[in-house]
Design a protein that fits this description.
Number of strands: 17
Shape: elongated
Radius of gyration: 26 Å
CATH class of the largest domain: Alpha Beta
Structural class: alpha+beta
CATH architecture of the largest domain: 3-Layer(aba) Sandwich
CATH superfamily of the largest domain: DD-peptidase/beta-lactamase superfamily
CATH topology of the largest domain: Beta-lactamase
Largest sheet: 8 strands, mixed
Order of helices and strands: EEEEHEHEHHHHEEEHEEEEEEEEH
Number of domains: 2
Helix content: 25-40%
Amino acid sequence: MPNCVSPALRLGALAALWLCASASAVLAFDTKARAAYVMDQGTNTVLLDKNANEPLPPASMSKLMTLYVAFEAVRDGRLTMEEELPVSLHAMSYKGSTMFLDTTDRVRVEDLIRGIIVLSGNDACAVIAEALSPDGTEAGFARYMTRRARELGMTESTFMNSNGWPDPNHRMSVKDLAILAKHLIEDFPEFYPLFSETEFDFDGRAPSNTLNRNPLLQLDIGADGLKTGHTEEAGYGLVGSAKQGDRRVIFVISGLNTMAERAEESEAIVNWSFRQFAKKTIAKAGVAVEQAEVWMGNSPTVGLVPAQDLEILLPTLSNDAVKAEVVYTGPVTAPIQAGQQLAELVVKPEDLPEMRLPLVAASDVGTGGFPVRVMTAVRVLVKRFLNGPEDNAT
C-alpha cells in the first residue's frame, strides 16, 4: 500500500502541551559549561544539548543514583525511613563532604537520605550502599547501580562507588543525569520535596556543613532540586529543576570553573528556558485532523485523531502558525479498532526540527459485506488508475 500524505495543514493560534518524541532547539543557549543538557519535562523537548552524551566525572551529582536505589528500596519495603543502619569503618573513612559519622553510630534511613541530599554526605552514601548491596560491599552496590542505570535508559553511566569519589572509571553523561532527574521527579513524587530542603543540622555535629549547596533554592524562580557536584577533575556542576506554572524544566551543567560561575549559569538557563519557549496545543484529543481511506471496510474512511492533546514547545518569538501534514500507509485495511494507531502528524515548527506525533482511529470500522468490498476495490483501483502510479496524495 502506498504511503499517503495529506495536504499540508496550517495550524495556528495554539496553547498547552504533550509530546512523545523529543526535539532539539536551534536557538541554543551560549553556555560556559563543558557539557550541558536542558529539557522541558512535560514535552520532552530538548532545549540545549552540548556534549550531552560524553561520559564525564559526575562528582557528587552521581549520588542521585544512590538516592534512586534507596527510594526504590523504601517503596518495595526493603528499607523503612525509620530503620537505623550501622556505620562501617569503610563508610567512616570517607573524607570530603560528610556527616561525620563513626562506627558507634546507628543512623535512621531518613537522616541518611537527607544527609545525602542536603549535606552531600559521602559517608551516608556508603552506609546506604552497604545496606542494599547484593554482596554487602560498596563495590557490589556500584555494580548494581550500573545495571539499574542501563535499565532506566542511562547508557553512558558507569559507577565505581556510591558517592562520586574520584575514580577514572566512574562516569556519567549530562544527558544520563537528566534522565535520572526526570525519573526521580516522576517515579517518587512523595520523596521529591526533600530536594528543596535548604538546611539539615544532623545531630549538631557538623556546624560547618548544614546548608544545601544548590544556589537556586533561595531564588524565587521555582527551583526545587536536585544536586550539586564538585571535584578538581569534574569542575563545578549542577543537576537542577525548576517549575513555573504548569511547566517544569530539568537541566544539567558540568565543568564550570567556580561556584559563582555555576550559580550564574544555572539561573540564566532557568530564566532562558521559561522566557524563550512556550507551550502550544496543535491538536485536541478526539478531534479529527484528517480522514484515512479504508480498504474493505463498512465505512470508506475513518477519522484520525490524537489520543491526547498534541502539545509542543515553541520559541516565544516564532510565528504561531505551524505547518503540519498527516502521513500514513493506506488505504487502511479493515477491521480497525478505535484507538489503534494508524498515522503520524508530522509537525514542522519554525526554528525547530520536525516532530512526529501519533494519530489513532476515531472509531471502530468493521469489515464490509461482499458488495461493499467489491465497490471499495473498484473505487480504489479506479482512483489509482486516474492518478497514476507516482501520485500518492490522498
